[in-house]
């Protein structure tokens, strides 16, 4: 199959590009590189640099290639940020997606996979959160994603487009074969920040909020390995041959922010210098996925489910890419301020447990 991947230079998108190619599909990436990285796109994958708001460009891209489907990742995606600039989130995420979906219908592209979010549930009363739980977004970011889910509902009802809305919980980790990783600028996510703090690349980490209604007072999140998440997209593509689906994608286990710090300390063998800070606006206390529907209907199971294994893949990528995509695979030296052993260029990372056989592509 031939797929267009918007946001394919970003964290989740780039891992999905790898999964699609590992499965034998061909891909074109469309990305404005505002948060993504050229180096995150494999050199032999065509990259169109442009804004989703540029309908003429998108139209040309769709005219020039007959796509079997679109996977749509390009979006603003930070919960806390969306409380600061709400209308930017609502406008950009919603309008860009609306136009993209309309263009897909115009070009008779009938398969659409949408990166939705657990943030559309707000602060649900029941955990784990099932797909049928009440939608009540706690942030403009979550709201923007839900609006797009509604557009897809009408795209199916009226035009017969099949879509998969994948409501991600907290994507983390990096490609187990070391081909891609997480590089946000600025970085705001807990796991990469804690790793960089452990490595001494950041002086300290603030933990936002000590008074949530959770066991240790910090927020609880369900961390899903980005490669498991990517694989859920392949499964969803099979499903939408015949119908539209909505799935929660998570591990069904919650870890508090303090659990994450302890995991990072175990994996790195170093202390994380952290301190308390006030709550971050928009953060729900607990988000734990009920992913039974995805497992039952597609056979998907997370292969890298243990938090330490997830952190381990993120840590290894950071060791080989201390500057992220800016300077991939530099030599490790005392000049970097790190005394970690160097992992050789192109190192073949051992995969955790059962993931070994599953995620290694047949031909490298
Ligand atoms: N946190 C800190 N200190 C930091 C950074 C984060 O305490 O410096 C806390 C947050 O307050 C939150 C937890 O760590 O309690 C996780 O925060 P992240 O920023 O890592 O991730 P979020 O849960 O805010 O959001 C992520 C994605 C969203 C997605 C959501 C789904 O960024 O796009 O997961 O749960 F919608």
TrEMBL record:
EC category: isomerase
Presence of the UniProt keyword Isomerase in the record: yes
Known EC number: 5.1.3.2
Cofactor(s) named in the record: NAD(+)
Pathway: Carbohydrate metabolism; galactose metabolism
Keyword tRNA processing belongs to the record: no
Reactions that this protein is recorded to catalyse: UDP-alpha-D-glucose = UDP-alpha-D-galactose
InterPro entries, per the entry: Epimerase_deHydtase (IPR001509), NAD(P)-bd_dom_sf (IPR036291), UDP_G4E (IPR005886)
Sample GO molecular function, one term: UDP-glucose 4-epimerase activity
GO BP annotations, alphabetical order: galactose catabolic process via UDP-galactose, Leloir pathway
Gene3D superfamilies: NAD(P)-binding Rossmann-like Domain, UDP-galactose 4-epimerase, domain 1
Domain NAD-dependent epimerase/dehydratase: 4-250
Keywords: Carbohydrate metabolism, Isomerase, NAD
Family: Belongs to the NAD(P)-dependent epimerase/dehydratase family.
Subunit structure: Homodimer.
Protein name: UDP-glucose 4-epimerase
